[in-house]
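Hello,

Our lab assistant flagged a job as stuck in the queue for most of the afternoon. It eventually completed. Since we weren't sure the result was trustworthy after the delay, we are filing this so someone can double-check. Below is the sequence as submitted and the structure that was eventually returned. Let us know if re-running is recommended.
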Amino acid sequence: MNESHNITIKRANRSRIWDMTQWLLIALVATLLIGTGSGCTASHYRKSADKVADKLIKEKQDQLFGKAEGLSIDRPSDILRRRLTNDQNLQYASNASLGTDKLEKISHWPEKKYPGAGSSAEDGIVIEAGKSLKLSLTQALQVAAMNSSDFQTQKENVFQKALDLNLQRHQYGFSIGGGGTYQYSAKNTGGQTSSSDSANPSLSLTKTLTYGAKIITSVGLDIVNLLTAGLTSKTFVGDASVSVPLLRGSGSYIASEQLTQAERDLVYSLQSFENYKNSFAVQITQGYMNVLSQMDQVDNNAENYKNLITSANRTSRLSEAGRTTIVQVNQALTQKLSAKDRWISALANYKNQLDAFKTMLGLPADADIELDRSELISLTNRASEIVAKAGADTSTPEILMEPGKENASSLEMDGSQAVKLALANRYDLKVLEGRVYDAQRAVVIKADALGTDLTINGTGHLAGATEVSGGGQTSPRSRNYTGLLSLNLPLDRVAERNDYRKSYIALEQAVRSYQNLEDSIKLSVRQDLRTMAQAREELSIQTQAVSVAETGYKSASMFFEAGRSELRDLLDAQSSLLTAKNAFTAAVINYRLSELQFQRDAGILKIDNKGLVTEYTFEENNNVK
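-- returned structure --
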């Protein structure tokens, strides 16, 4: 009897194990079908996030700027940094220097290849073997937009805000979930064995409404019953619940605050990025021009050194002929040595600035790169036209007069017009204006938290009849419904009270931040206008100074040759010429930078995602509101 009973139990256990195995196999197949059929691989999820973020960014760009450029954060594998490292055989410490796609994959890496692997930069820059890479200013701006670490980080900040917004929108849509459980239990009492099992996959649907209500529904399926008895009423289990706030936390204005803020945060990040691009372009241009200025100083100091070598040799010959003293010879030698020191110092400063500029672009400091000198020549030619237009001469004005605007560019506009233009176009001011509105909303939200909680909750459960294995007992179909009205009186709202008071403080701070930036903008553009006028006049003055210095050097040289002047006069004339040339180059660059800095501070300098700059034109004044 016991042996027969044990055999029966073993057979029942084997049967139960087989049923459980069937369930596990079905669950595994279903998982594989769902996972592979929908393409839900790690790569799929990443690309899906990229697609959603790009769509949201374009949506907001079109609303803000009237154009949808999009924003990609995946950099090509062959950016200029890596091509220079490889083609010029530069040193690097590890594969991390070459890019993410060159890293050795660690165990369990989820994708076959890294993002960006195999894509091309297509920047049109060719690196010739054995030659320095020459970059124009336009190319430098484009290279910086692709290679600069800081520029990339700014783009990623925008991208992350787009993903945050996507999540908030998703939470107010329909959210589908799925899963399942398998449970087996057996009990032996007095020689009688009773057992039960259940295998219940389920599908749920959740919807959060903008006025605060949340609805959750789920449907379950009894796999064991389905495999043994087929599709019957015993197979299904259903649940539903709803929660509706009536007082505190109710209403779309309060309940959808997180979604509202996520929308605005993406707008702020895009506006901040536009403002950043303006500053970034001016920074790159200033760095480029500083290198060119230092390059010109190297040339000027080299020419001065050569002239002083000639003067020292000439003085030495005159001393041998008895036409000058040893004191003058020593003066010439001292000036020659000083000139050599200045040339070496200028050369070192040039190389240091060039290396720093490479790093600013996001390129290796040891890359063989040179800047296009023609950019400085173009600026010098433009400066000559400005000076010629102003009618510069070497006569000394008899009347002191403040610089006028007779020969000024269209950028040197009236101060009130410049302020109006800046207040209408500065994106960082728009961001702080939005922050003021956010602070106002926060006051409303915190005031709502002071109120009474009154919430309606409801649940429903529907289950088909089930049979307990071995016992012959059947549980009838059940339908359960519950409703709950919960009330929480505002008897203790100390934390909420304090938060409410703090929200007013935050509002005042937001308003002051806006006012401070507004004042700073006014100050900046007014100073920029004066700086442009000063730079224009300085350009004219330095043009005259170079002309005077050149004439003085020629005269001093001829007088010294004729023995009609001292060596000191010649040396002073050479020093004055060097100073005038360096000052002229600085004046040329300062005038150009003053124009760009004004456009930056007025918010009218436009830069696309590739680093291409569009400057302000006078006709755009008509668009100022």
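-- support follow-up --
The delay was a queue issue, not a problem with the job. The result is valid. DSSP finds 14 helices and twelve strands in the chain. The chain has four domains: 1-40, 71-147, 201-255+453-488, 259-363+375-395+402-435+500-623.
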